[in-house]
Amino acid sequence: MGKKNRKDTGFYFDYSLLFVLIFIVGFGLTMIYSTSSYTAQIEQGDPEYYFKRQLIFTILGMAAMFFIARFFDYHHLLKLSPFIFIISLIIIILVPFIGREVNGAKRWIYIGPVSFQPAELVKIAVIIFCSAKVCNAGTSIKKFRRVVRIFLGVGVIPAVAILVCTSNLSSAIIVCGIAVVITFVAYPGYKIYVAIVAALSAAFLAFYTWLTNVVNSGRTFKNFRLTRFLVWLNPEKYIDGKGYQTVQGLYAIGSGGLFGKGLGKSLQKLGFIPESQNDMIFSIICEELGLFGAACVIIMFVILLWRVIHISQNAPDLFGSLLAVGVFAHIAIQVIINIAVVTNVFPNTGVTLPFISYGGTASVFLLAELGIVLNISSQIRLER
Q1: Contact 366, 355 (CB under 8 A)
Q2: Three-state DSSP state, 36
Q3: Does 11 have pLDDT greater than 50?
Q4: Angle, nearest 10°, between helix axes 15-44 and 49-71?
Q5: In which element (H, E) is residue 125 found?
Q6: Which sign, positive or negative, has the C-alpha torsion 337, 363, 164, 133?
Q7: Between the CA atoms of 324, 326, 329 and 330, what dihedral angle is there, to the nearest 10 degrees?
Q8: Contact 380, 14 (CB under 8 A)
Q9: Which residue, 278, 294, 284, is CA-closest to 354?
Q10: 281 burial level (CB within 10 Å; 0-12, 13-18, 19+)
Q11: Beta bridge partners of 110
Q12: How many Cα atoms are found within 13 Å in the side-chain-facing hemisphere of 220?
């Protein structure tokens, strides 16, 4: 699909990316209404409560996306990156002091009636600052120790801050994952990454073997994170506790069959899966639309990610290319982890499905990130 230079021919959208994004966002709003109407009626007295809130944040996110794509030059982020990064860390550190506890976790800051999750700001800050650090490194990025320093400073430090201040392991993993992908793309060598992946795989295999022996021996853990691994290996054993959500999600997936029960006809959303409009919304998609509907959703995400990486490959400079890579990594990691958790491939952790799960802060920041990608695409020159 051709790209036009903004100075020569005016503003340009990558329409393929825009259209697939609109489809996913519209589908997400539909599924939020379908999955939340029963719970919203009981808890809020309004079946459209969650749908209306998500619609408001979606409109705000779309407005932010259009403004960034149309009026904000992404090159300004290069100078602003240190300030954005520092501000995001300060806000995440403030959570234990001024944050509000919701469902047993203190991860939100309330500004009047609006809740704000600082971890979402940290993710976009890491994308911007990590891209800037790689660009500023110049040719020294060819040295692996420089890559490690960037990863530790831009990936590990904010991840630790998130983990310590909010106990949000999933967001910490995503932040580290974004930094890994950006530095991996920037570093010219691959052998060291192959060695690291091999070492991590061997460590995980050893841990899995040990954990399997623990399960077979009937031992339990007091640590809730280790308990999640036990639930992951045998969720039926913990169906009266931490394994309940996982088992009910698998019931929903299995009962959907090939084409599903029909939109709005899920049984598991009727109080069986707690807050089904959040992390477990993909299981309801499988139940109502079946394997075919779930496959279509995955294909839409693949198309969206393909367009983002295509823009990265054709970006006018390294900074734009790395920004797009960071956005690609953020969305891809969340999609993979969410679907893997719902299908019990990964242990249960709180990761939402981008643009589809209920969550105002996440939607606004994700749409803002795609605004940056669209802004990058608008500055790509056509080859004549």
Answers
A1: yes
A2: helix
A3: no
A4: 150
A5: helix 118-137
A6: positive
A7: -110
A8: no
A9: 278
A10: buried
A11: 115
A12: 6
pLDDT band at 47 (very low <50, low <70, confident <90, very high): very high
Is 108 in a helix, a strand, or coil?
A: strand
Q: What is the pLDDT of residue 349?
A: 84
Local confidence band at 9 (pLDDT 50, 70, 90 cut-offs) = very low
Question: 383 pLDDT band (50/70/90 cuts)?
Answer: low
Here the tokens at position 38 are: 């029963």
Asked if 39 contacts 276 with a C-beta cutoff of 8 angstroms, the reply is yes
Decide if pLDDT at 208 tops 90.
no
- Residues 39-53, mean pLDDT to the nearest whole number: 92
**118/192 Cα distance (integer angstroms):** 33
CA angle 205, 242, 103 (to 5 degrees): 120
Reported as a pLDDT band with limits 50, 70 and 90, residue 13 is: low
Amino acid letter, 372: I
Token look-up 């891809």 returns 332
> Where is 302: in which H helix or E strand?
helix 281-313
How high is the mean pLDDT of the chain? Answer: 89
Residue 382 pLDDT > 70, yes or no?
A: no
Determine how many CB atoms are found less than 10 A away from the CB of residue 299. Answer: 11
Torsion (CA) 172, 174, 179, 181 in degrees, nearest 10: 150
Q: Coil, helix or strand for 111?
A: strand
Instruction: Name 193's Cβ contacts closer than 8 Å, sequence gap at least 6.
Output: 184, 187
Q: What is the 3-state secondary structure (H, E, C) of 138-182?
A: HHHHHCHHHHHHHHHHHHHHHHHHHHHHHCCHHHHHHHHHHHHHH
Q: What does the pLDDT look like over 303-358, one tens digit per residue?
A: 999 999 999 998 999 999 999 999 999 999 999 999 999 999 988 888 999 999 99
In 3D space, the residue among 19, 37, 22, 24 whose CA is nearest the CA of residue 263 turns out to be 37
Query: 275: closest CA among 112, 59, 50?
Result: 50
pLDDT (0 to 100) of residue 110: 84
Cβ–Cβ contacts within 10 Å for residue 289, how many? 23
Q: Which segment, 100-109, 135-144, 238-247, is predicted with the most confidence on average?
A: 135-144
CB 333 within 8 A of CB 174: yes
- Rg of the chain over all Cα atoms, to the nearest angstrom: 21
